[in-house]
Amino acid sequence: MSQNSGTPLNILVLVKHVPDVQFERHLSAPENRLDRADSVLSELDEYAIEAALALAESRGGDKAGNTVTTLTMGPSAAVNAVKKSLQMGATSGVHICDPALAGSDAVTTSMVLAAAVQSLGGFDIVLTGMASTDAETSLVPASLAERLGLAMLTNLSTLELAPGSTTITGVREAEEGAQSLEAPLPVLISVTDQANEPRYPNFRGILGAKKKKIVTLTLEELGLDAAAVGAEGSATRVVSAQARPPRSGGEIITDSGSAGIALVDFLTDAKLL
Amino acid sequence: MSNILVYIHAPAPVPTKSQRELLALAASLGEVHAVLGGPADPIALEALTSAGANGFYTAAGGIDPAALLSPAVCLLTAAVRESAATAVLLPNSIEGREIAARAAVRLDSGVITDAIEVDAELLVTKSVLAGSYTVKAQVTRGPALITLKPNSVQLPAHETASAAAAPVRELELGDNAPAARITGTRPRTSSGRPALAEARFVVAGGRGVDGDFSAVEDLADALGAAVGASRAATDAGWIDHSAQVGQTGTTVSPQLYISAGISGAIQQKAGMQSAKTIIAINKDPDAPVFEIADLGIVGDLTQVLPQAAAEIRRRKA
Ligand SMILES: Cc1cc2nc3c(=O)[nH]c(=O)nc-3n(C[C@H](O)[C@H](O)[C@H](O)COP(=O)(O)OP(=O)(O)OC[C@H]3O[C@@H](n4cnc5c(N)ncnc54)[C@H](O)[C@@H]3O)c2cc1C
Ligand SMILES: Nc1ncnc2c1ncn2[C@@H]1O[C@H](COP(=O)(O)O)[C@@H](O)[C@H]1O
């Protein structure tokens, strides 16, 4: 690599451990919290990991001093989201774990993540998924960038950092059309599932991950007060939750030449025409 | 009476349906001021007034159109402080969520996304986990920042045209956070069809259309519907990504969703199962989409869709 490839990058990727979307998911009484058994790395965070790895590789990878650190906040099992990211190729991981964190909403989560980002220090790029597949708020990336005073490029479907450049460019599908965006480093970026094709961990990656370092952080180590986080510290509260009766399938017909007419009859009966 | 703010991202001479819904909901909760995320001409101000705004907040010196959302966050925060609003309603779009998230940090308050209902006590109803639960949630500290899903509010049958636009207050933006720059926008090519998120009817096609969306589009036009698609169809490049319905596309809650050649994966269902009526056409009788369809047709979409479109046109004639 020539000098033109630029200075090495320190990239932080935020990953979340979430209940597998392929199974039924449950809120449990009395606090209406999500049952977190059968959890996996949030699918949408794989795109953020892939984007980080590709950026680091474009500057010569580990050997050239680029690092990809992954960070999660969650209960003990959440470390598995970090482990998967290490198998994919991340350099090292951080797990914020503290019982007081249970019940934190998105904006409060961003406060804890911001404290961790500040204490770890020195990142050029913070990368996140477009949304977590459990909470699906998309609030964490923007509120985190706001706390850190970073410019934010969210929901990017393409992203580019030219060799030697310190300006990130990308495109997002906004309300008014496809917007071309740019911002100088340091920056926070969230990527959509259009951004890339996440790699699968290969055999070497899985073996190599066992030797990689994962640091665990507690609230105290972050200098945060238990009363400021969790359900108590959050400014939103779920008051009640009701399982929606599963949508029952209706009538099923097999086309024998006139199902198009039957479809229109159905619309007429339902007063939709 | 409490003050409610509504964030209008792009004021236009004819407000969008989503903007009307935001204003109508706000009017049921209190005195309404619209915070304008872009320039508004007198016609736009009159139209927004007719739709429920009792006043407006704009930025002194205007909003830098190339700065990505930061000026809007400053303006909204200033408007909350000025009006002592108890709630701010925003669109559920990328923009609305991002502005809400950033304002919540500045105001030390909470955000609830995906609202489908807000009552007088500001208790918010939303559905979570891809529609498997309905929850009621509340902001417990600071002004309630709420992003509203389209197609959630019943609009008045007719608006009372107002004689004149409501008054406009200009606010100083103060310090701007570092912002990304918008260096270009490629507007969507208009299909002439209703906007997907707001449409009353949607006809969607998946991998089963096998590269040809014309039968889907033709039925959509016979019904006056928007056209949707599965990710398999948009990834294949058969139709623009903006047509994608689902977890990572648009969420729709139309009166009618016709799904053709779509298997019904969880990520697709997440974006359409709150439709009032679902009709599915699939040649595989075991397709999961049939589990949620009010009418399931096991058949070939290339036969069923054109026949239905022709029959609708015949009956309408
Ligand atoms: C992170 C992530 C996010 C995703 N987000 C989304 C999303 O937002 N939206 C989304 O839709 N998907 C999303 N997906 C993809 C999703 O998992 C499915 O792969 C996708 O929905 C499948 O599309 P499909 O039903 O069109 O294709 P398939 O699953 O291949 O189904 C095609 C169907 O067409 C039927 N068929 C074929 N020919 C005919 C014919 N002539 N007439 C009638 N029926 C026919 C077949 O029987 C089959 O059931 C996401 C996936 C991931 C991993
Ligand atoms: N508990 C968490 N730990 C680490 N990252 C998170 C956490 N929650 C959310 N994120 C990040 O923020 C993104 C958006 O999540 P959300 O705002 O919950 O929809 C996710 O894709 C993650 O990258």
UniProtKB/TrEMBL annotation, chain A:
<dbReference type="GO" id="GO:0009055">
    <property type="term" value="F:electron transfer activity"/>
</dbReference>
<dbReference type="InterPro" id="IPR000049">
    <property type="entry name" value="ET-Flavoprotein_bsu_CS"/>
</dbReference>
<dbReference type="InterPro" id="IPR012255">
    <property type="entry name" value="ETF_b"/>
</dbReference>
<dbReference type="InterPro" id="IPR014730">
    <property type="entry name" value="ETF_a/b_N"/>
</dbReference>
<dbReference type="InterPro" id="IPR033948">
    <property type="entry name" value="ETF_beta_N"/>
</dbReference>
<comment type="subunit">
    <text>Heterodimer of an alpha and a beta subunit.</text>
</comment>
<dbReference type="InterPro" id="IPR014729">
    <property type="entry name" value="Rossmann-like_a/b/a_fold"/>
</dbReference>
<protein>
    <recommendedName>
        <fullName>Electron transfer flavoprotein subunit beta</fullName>
    </recommendedName>
</protein>
<feature type="domain" description="Electron transfer flavoprotein alpha/beta-subunit N-terminal">
    <location>
        <begin position="31"/>
        <end position="226"/>
    </location>
</feature>
<keyword id="KW-0813">Transport</keyword>
<comment type="similarity">
    <text>Belongs to the ETF beta-subunit/FixA family.</text>
</comment>
<comment type="function">
    <text>The electron transfer flavoprotein serves as a specific electron acceptor for other dehydrogenases. It transfers the electrons to the main respiratory chain via ETF-ubiquinone oxidoreductase (ETF dehydrogenase).</text>
</comment>
<dbReference type="GO" id="GO:0005829">
    <property type="term" value="C:cytosol"/>
</dbReference>
<keyword id="KW-0249">Electron transport</keyword>
<dbReference type="Pfam" id="PF01012">
    <property type="entry name" value="ETF"/>
</dbReference>
Automatic annotation (TrEMBL), chain B:
<comment type="function">
    <text>The electron transfer flavoprotein serves as a specific electron acceptor for other dehydrogenases. It transfers the electrons to the main respiratory chain via ETF-ubiquinone oxidoreductase (ETF dehydrogenase).</text>
</comment>
<feature type="binding site">
    <location>
        <position position="207"/>
    </location>
    <ligand>
        <name>FAD</name>
    </ligand>
</feature>
<dbReference type="InterPro" id="IPR029035">
    <property type="entry name" value="DHS-like_NAD/FAD-binding_dom"/>
</dbReference>
<comment type="subunit">
    <text>Heterodimer of an alpha and a beta subunit.</text>
</comment>
<feature type="binding site">
    <location>
        <begin position="244"/>
        <end position="248"/>
    </location>
    <ligand>
        <name>FAD</name>
    </ligand>
</feature>
<dbReference type="GO" id="GO:0033539">
    <property type="term" value="P:fatty acid beta-oxidation using acyl-CoA dehydrogenase"/>
</dbReference>
<feature type="domain" description="Electron transfer flavoprotein alpha/beta-subunit N-terminal">
    <location>
        <begin position="4"/>
        <end position="180"/>
    </location>
</feature>
<dbReference type="InterPro" id="IPR014729">
    <property type="entry name" value="Rossmann-like_a/b/a_fold"/>
</dbReference>
<protein>
    <submittedName>
        <fullName>Electron transfer flavoprotein subunit alpha</fullName>
    </submittedName>
</protein>
<comment type="similarity">
    <text>Belongs to the ETF alpha-subunit/FixB family.</text>
</comment>
<feature type="binding site">
    <location>
        <position position="282"/>
    </location>
    <ligand>
        <name>FAD</name>
    </ligand>
</feature>
<feature type="binding site">
    <location>
        <begin position="230"/>
        <end position="231"/>
    </location>
    <ligand>
        <name>FAD</name>
    </ligand>
</feature>
<dbReference type="InterPro" id="IPR001308">
    <property type="entry name" value="ETF_a/FixB"/>
</dbReference>
<dbReference type="InterPro" id="IPR014731">
    <property type="entry name" value="ETF_asu_C"/>
</dbReference>
<dbReference type="GO" id="GO:0009055">
    <property type="term" value="F:electron transfer activity"/>
</dbReference>
<dbReference type="Pfam" id="PF01012">
    <property type="entry name" value="ETF"/>
</dbReference>
<keyword id="KW-0274">FAD</keyword>
<keyword id="KW-0285">Flavoprotein</keyword>
<dbReference type="Pfam" id="PF00766">
    <property type="entry name" value="ETF_alpha"/>
</dbReference>
<dbReference type="InterPro" id="IPR014730">
    <property type="entry name" value="ETF_a/b_N"/>
</dbReference>
<dbReference type="GO" id="GO:0050660">
    <property type="term" value="F:flavin adenine dinucleotide binding"/>
</dbReference>
